[in-house]
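Submission checklist for the structure archive. All mandatory fields must be present; incomplete records are returned to the submitter.

[x] Identifier: Paraquat-inducible membrane protein A
[x] Organism: Paracoccus salipaludis
[x] Residue count: 245
[x] Sequence attached
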Amino acid sequence: MIEAGQYDMRTGAGLIACPRCDALHVEAELTEGETARCVRCGHVLARPREGAFTQIVALSFTSLVLMVAAVFFPFLEVSRMGIGNATSLFGVAMAFSEGWLMPLTVAVLAFIVGLPALRAVLLVYVLLPMRGQGRPARHAGEAFRLSELLRPWSMAEIFVIGTSVALVKVAGLATVSLGPAFWAFCALIIVGAASDVFTCAATIWDTLEDRGAFTDGREVVPDPETAAHDRQIVEGTPPAPDHAA
């Protein structure tokens, strides 16, 4: 751990890189309402917002509820000449659950349902205990790192776009009615976009570090002694022995 305002070019401690142009900046502690932008391209590096953790948690719970509706409610109904059939996303996946199409079922459930739901659960696990002045949960740093790694692989919006293109072609052959699960997926995309707007990774990392959660050992904290004491409380480790005597 190092104090705010210091940095180490060898390890990268105290520095933050712009995710768009890779320009290096000295990491600084921000207060709520302040915004840190890249001096080269103007990309927002950090933007603490009051109540952002509570909003992200609420949006994550909303995503989980919408995901349940999107999976088990009727997704669409296809009818022709008075004969129709309605199915859900879970029913479609189970239709390919036998034989050599089993990997397709696993891929559908994992990328469209499993990963977005897992990411929402991880965000709740990380941010729910830290609302207000709460301390982070055990392994909160690892959980948030995993949620960031899963972000590019959450493909609910890709699924909706692909389904819409397919429905345009099917509509010429039969009557297609969209079920509540389709609109739940559309709402899920909107909620996910809103969650990404409120989520500032740099702010969450700073909060985890300031409240004693272990990240990568290169934390920038206002008071290293206080941060070390908080880390002992979070990790449940006994305090280091005092050899001053």
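[x] Structure attached
Curator remark: The longest helix spans residues 102-127. The mean pLDDT is 77.
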